[in-house]
Amino acid sequence: MSKNNRKELPDFVMLRQRYNNMPPGQRAELRRVGEPDDLSFTPALYRLFPGARPDDRHRRVAFFLPWCEQSKGSPPGLGKQLVDKRISEARVLQVARARPPVDLVQFRRLVIHVEPVVDWEKFGRLLWFWEPQDKRKIVEDFYIAQFDNPNGGKK
Could you say which residues of the chain have pLDDT below 50? Predict the structure, then answer.
């Protein structure tokens, strides 16, 4: 990653804290949107990124902020959390195969179901750059987590 890309990256942990400090009505605005583009007409988006002209990257991050808690430590990977919540292989692959913006909508549905605890520094970067290889990484992490827990989340 070039120095320019690092400079333009927001502090994702701080964004999650800013979200947590918003009034309930503004947090609800962010939860209610159906697609990332719907955020363009949501005042809470502009309060999350004061003074910025939010683009697709900002909208992707804001689309997920309400649904993923921040962990101070090293939380289990998203793949492990998907396995532990017994998310089906078909649902994970559906996200990976979908085209934008449907991929993000389906991914958010999984996230809402799982209620993951994430390291927002890493998760925010994944959403900020959201490329096909990021979807592939989610699939790979899911399968690797299954081998780590061959019972598929059963204890």
Answer: 1-5, 153-155
